[in-house]
Amino acid sequence: MSPFPMRCTSCGEYIGKGRKFNARKSTPDENNLGIQIFRFFIRCTRCSSEITFRTDPQTSDYVCEAGAKRNTELWWSGDAVTETLDERLDRLEREEQDHDSTEKDAMADLERETRSAEKRMAVADALDEVRSRNARLEKLRREGVDPLVPATEGRMTAEDGKDEEDARRAFASRSAAESETLDQAEPSQTEAATDAMTRQKRAPKQTKLLPGLKRADAPSSKLSLVGYGSDTD
């Protein structure tokens, strides 16, 4: 099976990629970085001339050696074919160094972007603080408060107002408690006065006597003058 499209140099026959052939394979004493190279031999379907191509591990492709010419050549295959082992090692080392330098540059760019973002955030926060301060001052001006008053005086005024409000609330609660106590005490005093008056108006208790009996009069405590001048004394 042809690995690439080619044209026979003897008769000009075009051979497309993937066309099947009865190929002969040989294993030469060649390798690329330890990878074995294989060579294949086929014949043109029109003139039966021999066409030779081999594997190329360096480019992961095939190289047409004799009997035909590729219709399309890989753009990187020109330098890769003539590159030796030492040149390949040097190229890989340069690529690694370039990669390291590129990575370092990327890290430096990232750090610069991070610092720039932090600076922008700090500037935005400062602007927000300035805007809020201006809005607060404008609100105070609208309310008729002088915004140039020192902050300590304003804070002391606010604290004094809070203390006065607390004292007013305390006196109000105390007055409410005293009025409630007086309201509870007045009914008790009224009930006590009513009981005293009832006891005073109550009639004295009379002892019941049997029928036909009269109450004996109590002896008089006055002294009698009868017989004061008699001789019996």
UniProtKB/TrEMBL annotation:
Residue span of region Disordered: 93-119, 141-233
Residue ranges, compositional bias (Basic and acidic residues): 156-169
InterPro entries: Saf4/Yju2
Name of one Pfam family that matches: Saf4_Yju2
Regions of compositional bias (Low complexity) in chain numbering: 170-179
GO process terms (BP): mRNA splicing, via spliceosome
One GO cellular component, as annotated: U2-type catalytic step 1 spliceosome
Signal peptide (UniProt feature, chain positions): none
Protein name in UniProt: mRNA splicing protein yju2
Organism of origin: Colletotrichum sojae
